[in-house]
Amino acid sequence: MADTSVQVQQPSRSRDLDKLLLRPGNLVGPRFEPGAELRDDLQAFAKVLVVGAGGLGCELLKDLALTGFRNLEVIDMDRIEVTNLNRQFLFRLEDVGKPKAEVAAKRVMERISGVDIVPHFCRIEDKDIEFYNDFSIIALGLDSIEARSYINNVACSFLEYDSDDNPREETIKPMVDGGTEGFKGHARVIMPGITPCFECTIWLFPPQVKFPLCTLAETPRTAAHCIEYAHLIKWDEVHRGVPFDPDNPKNMKWVYDEAVKRAELFGIPGVTYSFTQGVVKNIIPAIASTNAIISAACALETLKIATECSKTLSNYLTFVLYLLYFVVFGY
Q1: Which residues, including other chains, have CB under 8 Å from residue 80's CB and lie 6 or more apart?
Q2: What is the reported pLDDT for 27?
Q3: Does 16 score more than 90 pLDDT?
Q4: What is the spatial distance between Cα 81 and Cα 172, in angstroms, rounded to a whole number?
Q5: Same domain, 249 and 132
Q6: Given strand 316-320, what is the order of strands in its sheet?
Q7: Which of the listed residues 58, 107, 194, 249 has the most CB atoms within 10 Å of its CB?
Q8: Same structural domain for residues 251 and 311?
Q9: Domain with 266 in it
Q10: Which of 217, 219, 209, 250 is nearest to 233 (CA)?
Q11: Nearest-5° angle of CA 100, CA 138, CA 65?
């Protein structure tokens, strides 16, 4: 009896990548040569460092692996908390307390065959400068201005100029910076010596919210005032000489308890443990959809830099998830 079954051929995992790398185009870079060799070189030689394994970093690590990058490393100093689980999709309840970098690397490698991800559970300052020089591109998934400034300074320190005062191409360390804040996000490409660096545009960030100490001590009006009173004033009064550690659950619980007492004294509602964490650590509510969109933009820009399959962002992409409205600068 003849076999009448029809075998359905599954599409190649690199199908969409091939559309970018195997065909010529009008927006490609001057050295772009389409072909399977380019895809193979991307997998073999391009080495990308992802800085941060939080909401944006998890998405970015996954997207880069699916985009064709095979040699990835990720660095993050934090451990997984229960509050991370609603948006940092690589983590599970049983992972709470484990290093984010290690769990994120493990989960991506379990789901995507052929990718090699090396995790680093440490502060970015703990690595020597040459560690960062080993990467083709640095992708940032950070929520800290200070951390961005540090990586920016490291990348710019590699830059050298020729006799005509032009940047030497082999010393340029490209950075792709992503950031999200609720329903808003940005992606940008920083090419030291060519585009403005992070320090050149740091004034674009809004100033940090600060409360007058007299308001905290005398006339608190909001839950945040009560929390900052416990954090900035009461802690030093009770724990003289002992620095407050925002990553220590016992320290955070003490601040929360004191903030509750303060709020009850003045009849102020709204003090919760999660809100206390947000105020003390300056945590901005994260939206998973925003992280996914900004991560996709950063992964695409990283691919453009590595292959020249298209022109990269000259500077900035800003996204606002209200009516799917976004603005692109610099194309």
Answers
A1: 88, 91, 95, 96, 97, 98, 99, 100, 103
A2: 87
A3: no
A4: 36
A5: no
A6: 116-121, 71-76, 47-51, 137-141, 175-181, 184-190, 316-320, 325-329
A7: 58
A8: no
A9: 213-280
A10: 217
A11: 60
Model pLDDT, residue 315? 75
**Whole-prediction pTM value?**
0.79
Same-domain pairing of 202 and 217: no
pLDDT of residue 209: 67
205: helix, strand or coil: coil
Bridge partners for 75 per DSSP: 51, 120
Q: How far apart are CA 235 and CA 251, in angstroms?
A: 9
Number of domains in the chain: 2
Cα–Cα distance measured from residue 20 to residue 301, given in angstroms and rounded to the nearest whole number: 13
CATH number at residue 319: 3.40.50.720
Tens-digit pLDDT profile for residues 296-322: 999 999 999 999 999 998 878 888 876
Give the model's pLDDT for residue 213: 77
Whole-number Å distance between alpha carbons of 282 and 267: 24
Active site residues: 214
Size of the chain, expressed as the number of residues it contains: 331
Q: Where are the beta strands (DSSP E) in 106-198?
A: 116-121, 137-141, 175-181, 184-190
Secondary structure (3-state) at 74: strand
